[in-house]
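Table S2 (continued). Query chain:
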Amino acid sequence: MLKYTNHDFTPVHTPPKPTIFHYEDLDVEVDPDVYDPAEDTFLLLQTIHARPGIAVLDLGTGCGIIALACARNGASVVASDINPHAVHNCRRNQERNRSRLTGTLAVRHGDLFSVLRPDERFDLIVFNPPYVPTPSEETMEAWLDLATSGGDDGLQVTTRFITGVRRYLAPAGAAYIIVSSRSPQTAIHRLLRENQLKGTIVGTQRFEDEEIYCYRMTPTD
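Corresponding output:
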């Protein structure tokens, strides 16, 4: 949006403002440089079950809506994002909703599992990765593009997640991730086998030209 001063009519660019919405009893602010919760976010929220006292890891937390919902239910949550705007956004939402959180929430800045100590283990790990198949020549460096662009096959970041997640799962733990039907499902199944994980589709959302799947992953032994 452009504004003009009264004196010289010089155009002044007004930065976009955060938006605010309500999810159940949570007040959630979304920064303009942070992924806006969408159908994939709510598919995860409908699928996961964060019980009081369990340890939860929310990777790519964005505005923090999943982390907040888990902490509200009494879980001990670690939330992280590579996007510094998302980290600040999540912390602001933690303050906005502090009275509603019966569990704990620690917000960290970093790339995937780099934010964790080697001895940390989680009962529930949640990740809404960048999964849209995007040719390299179309990939941009803006934070919102990095939140959605999954590389040529949509699995660039997902591959790294599946390769590393088992190490941080508690023995009876489970990980949940979103995958697009536009990505090769055979590659997902191969990754699961190679990393000793069992994958089950526990939720779906259909669109006109795509379907998204919520996979539940557990150790095979």
